[in-house]
Every structure is written in C-alpha cells, then in structure tokens.
Amino acid sequence: MTRFLASLLATLFMWGASHAAFPDKPIRFVVAFAAGSSTDIVARLIGEQVSAALGQPVLVENKPGAGGNIATQGVMNGPADGYTLLFHSVAYAVNPTLFGNAGYDAVKDLQPVALAGFTPNLLYVHPDVKATTLPELLALARTGTLAYASSGNGTTTHLGAEWLFRGLAKVDVTHVPFQPAAATNAVVSGQVPIASTSMPPAVPFAKSGKVRPIAVMSLKRSPALPDVPTVAELGYKDFEANTWFGVFAPAKTPAALLDLLNAEINKAQAVKAVQDRYQTLSLEAGRMDRPTLRRYVESEVGKWGQLVKDLNIKIQ
To answer: What is the pTM of this model?
Structure first.
C-alpha cells in the first residue's frame, strides 16, 4: 500500500508540474487533409476553443498527401512534447492496411489523444430509383447492373458500402469514386443512382427530397435524420461505418499532457457554439476518455484492416 501511495503521489506531482508549465508556447494541429476538408473544419473549431482555454494560440497547419500518411509520418517523427499534434480522420485506422507502405503503425507509433467528433456514413439513392428500403435496393441490385458513388477509394464510405454489398448481401454494385461533395452531386444529377458518403454533404439534399436516404451506417440513428433506420436495424447486426475525427500525438508524449489535452478537447465539444456548428454540419460530439478512445481506435484498426484484406483492396 505504501508503495502504491508513493507511486500515486509521484504521478500527481508530475501531472501538476506539467499542467503548470504546459503550454508556454503555441500548439500546432497538423491536419492530414487540405484546408476546407471536414477534418480541417473540425480542427479549426476545436482549436479556437482549446486556444481560449489554455491561453496559447493553436495553429492549424494543413499537410495533405498520400491519404493523410505524410502528416502522420511527420508528427510521428516529431518532438513528443504535446505541442505538435496530428488531426486526422478514420483514414488513420484504415491506411496501414490499405496502403502498401503507409509508413506507420496505427497502434504503436502514435497515441490517441481525443475523439473530436464523428458522422455516420449514409446510403442514399436518386428519387427515381425504384427502392425505398434497403431490402428493396438489394433486390434491385440482384436484377441488374447498378453503380454507387463514394467519397473516394479507401474511405470508409467506400469500404462500408463494399462490406454491405459484396461482403454481407453478396451483390455486385459497381464502385465510382468521387470527392465527397461531388459524390452527392452525382446522385442529385442522376449521373449515379446510389451513393455512400458521410452525412454532411447529403443531409440538405435528403431534407429537400433531392435524394432518398436508405440507411444510416452507425449503430444508432442519427439526430440529423432520425426517421432513417440503421443498417444494423435492417438485419445486419453490429454493422457500423462512421467517419470520425481524432487527435493523435507521438508515442512517447507524457501521459499527463495527453490527459490535459483530452480534457480540453472534450470540453471544447461541449461549448454551445461548437455544438451548434456540429449540428449544422450533421456531426456528433465524440467525447471519450483516453483508455476508452484507445480501445475504440484499436478496434477500428482491426475492423477496417480485416475488411481491406477480405475484400482485397489496395492503394499503392
């Protein structure tokens, strides 16, 4: 017991010392994608709140390239002092299996700091498609050649649709990759009959009747479209394909700093201005403590990695 108390006091002392000294200079969020991307928008929203709370600027630096791998490698090899953090999407968990050489191990090379929000992926169709439910859509796919648009090769919007169509329902639907907004526009215009994207680009068109939502790919229904059932509800138990946004740090970053940053990023998502903006963007807060987040990221790495292998999907 004495040894335990000594260890606990030492940990609290180190946390207190780090808390008192950190931060004493600007923090950098290195965003894995271009300015204007969903990841970038979330990073800037959270950065404003963290800056106000900690009394230091949070600088957002965009380093797109190789599906986010360039930014990841840069942060991984940078100083482990809490001042340089990676702001990434679910692609962080997918890329090590998807790419021939992503350049990092998603479990060992960085530590998850905080989940900064998520959005379910959504399956939807052009209004002229003769299907209003998932069973009807799958039945239609079995009778002829159909195609679906996604937010790009290797995204969870692509992998989730392949998991549903080819992996579970055993139907062949041709994949047509686009940029996220372009995928939605392709369905609105009738260029492609089906789409699988995250919710932000699709929700306004779903509410206006320009696309017909078929199923939400999260485990629970989305507040943005509460009347749309989940894939899991429709007979595919435990099916979940989300687009999430996370903050990561080099593996050797002190735990006390990571706990502080986790707390501040979680608090930022509870601020009304952020909640209102998330609602506008069809995002949901992703507040988790670090042990829960680590388990979640590891489960995502395992799930998507296995799916990529099973479906033999590769990006060189």
So the answer is: 0.89
